[in-house]
Amino acid sequence: MVTENGEQAGESNLQDKVQEQKGIIPGKKLFGTVEGVFVPTLLTILGVIMYLREGWVVGNAGLLGSWLIILLSFGITLATALSLSSITTNIRIGAGGAFSIISQSLGLEVGGSIGIPLYLSQSLAVAMYIFGFRAGWLWIFPEHSPIIVDFVTFAILFIVAYISASLAFRIQYVIFAIIISSLISVIWAAYSGSMQESVTWWGSFAGSPENKFTGIGFWGVFAVFFPAATGIMAGANMSGELKNPRKSIPLGTLSAIIISLIVYLLLAYWLASSASTDELLNNYTIMADKAAWGQLIVAGLLGATFSSALSSIVGAPRILQALADHHILPASDWFAKRSGSGEPRNAMIFTGLIVFLALLLRDLNAITPLITMFFLITYAMINIVVLIEQNLKLVSFRPLFKIPMIVSFIGAVGSVFVMVIVNSTFSMLAFIVVIVIHAYLLKKHLKAPFGDVRSGLFVAVAEWAAKQSNRIAPSNERTWKANLLIPVKNPNILTGAFNLIKDITYPKGSIKILGLSGDLKEDKLSSRLIDLTNSFRKRGVFSSWTLIDTKEFEKSLIAGMEALSGSFFRPRVLFIHMNSFEGQEEKLKDVIRKASKRNIGILLLAVHPETVFGRENSINLWINDRSPDWDISMELGNQDLAILIAYKLKKNWKASLRMISCVKQQYNNYKALQYLENLAELARIPNVTNKVLLGNVENSLGKSPRASINIFSIEPDIDFDFVTKAVEKTGSTCLFALDSGEENALA
Q: Which domains does the chain show, CATH number per domain?
């Protein structure tokens, strides 16, 4: 029987292991739901727009219009928060918030392409909030120097954040109290009878003093208000420093959103009832004028901007440090270092430098829309991650907090919609930046310490495509690719034909290597096959391998073909290297006959011991006698595979191609030449030389022009004596092809 203490000890050990995986330093200060998520998220949402722009929104849209704008804005961010809550209850979220979430689902490349712009946006947002704080400060002390206010504010923020996140959160409690006091001032005003105006339910959307009230649309007002509903990542950015992020992020984020939504809705009603439309439109400080104590509103405005800046300057270095942990950035080892207390001091210094340079610009209006776009792309990607996971229906996706699929869909579509509404030009620019970063990260070949669902996503797409393909009448003529099944007993022999096999299959074909371990030890053969497979993949050809432990290769090979014939992506051509099965011709005949019955094509390679593949600059393709009429049709009589392979080698070798045919009577020479010309034209093979020889094929072998390789068509009952003579008399390596019935060189 397990004691209560034993259970607690077990849970503690498990938690220690989880924290060790997340990189959490023992003894480091960890935060709970309220201080780590709820307060910073709520303070970020209840920001400058609430104090300075909500009255203007009500003046333009009326009470119903403003409620609709508020509900739409919070609806999109609430959907994103629900998606965020769902995914965080399914994974062991590490440091970096959204970066960690996206990386664990779609890979480090996608996570990094979102995380880098998100970090920069979070850093530049600090400067924007400082500018907002300065505007409020100068309202009270207009004689103060703006640049001194900016840099003093920055210095205080940086020192607080540099000391520790714990100190920053303690200061946020003070700011939280100030904002609560400002809202109490509004409540007291309402209680004292400020709500005397008649409510305008739907506004005329007159515009603003800046555009001389020339008008503004519903979506224009929406675009101004929407940033108020953002800021939901303030708590998630601290994911690596929460006691229980799986619990704290959903609870803290959703609570902050719901409470702030109620505040915005009630505040809109108070403003609509306390001020006239003209006052709301012309006076951005109407909230301070109508509240019981205007000084508290100003204090709340200063507190809101300072708090938002503090959340950003604490959160941004955590994102940078998380990116560096996975070696996504240059100088990652330096950025990833933490202090003894677990603070990302190096990342903090770099972030401080970015903020300092941004303050020197004095105006971020030019790039402010781009910053907003990066936040919205992050929101969209979080929703897309959940949407993908929900659709894949993998057993690994079993979140403790479940949401309907429509929620993540609304969040994704809504985020993209808002991007277009706010600024379509900056939306495109933001997407381009993300794509460029993603392309750069792909080249780095990042290695993640965790799995992701990308392979599941591709498998799901492949399964869907396979099902759709099976519903259509089967026809592989136009979709044929060189998908080879290659039995291997001695890897050294296959290595000699490596380039030929690569050139037959490149770029869209595939290779399935079937190791026959009768002659070599299994571990040695496996090691060599892995090397071969990787070499093919590095050269752009998909390759895989499997091993059969057998001494009777023909039975195992036939069994392997039968097993693979039922798969959707099955090998269509059996590639046999004669040197691998020397002295086993009768067994090969049996394999070839049975492969032909199962509609599997054959490529039989017989290598000349001296010339091998020569200079890979010329190809002879032997075309069967079509006497007496030499009429061409879609049925080429077991020539399709040979023609297609000749074309592939011509293209990849950049070689010359010669089509050769034999006639027994001289008068058929002209017909044969016409046939070859028509065949080259219909098969769409350019720059082909044609030659007709008098006599049968066997007697004409020695008369043919020299080539790097000669390609022949064969029948299921192959004559191995002819194979030997062809190699000897042509003085070259020869390739013998038998159609599977699925090829068509004229398709």
A: 31-444 (1.20.1740.10), 477-600 (3.40.50.620), 607-747 (3.40.50.620)
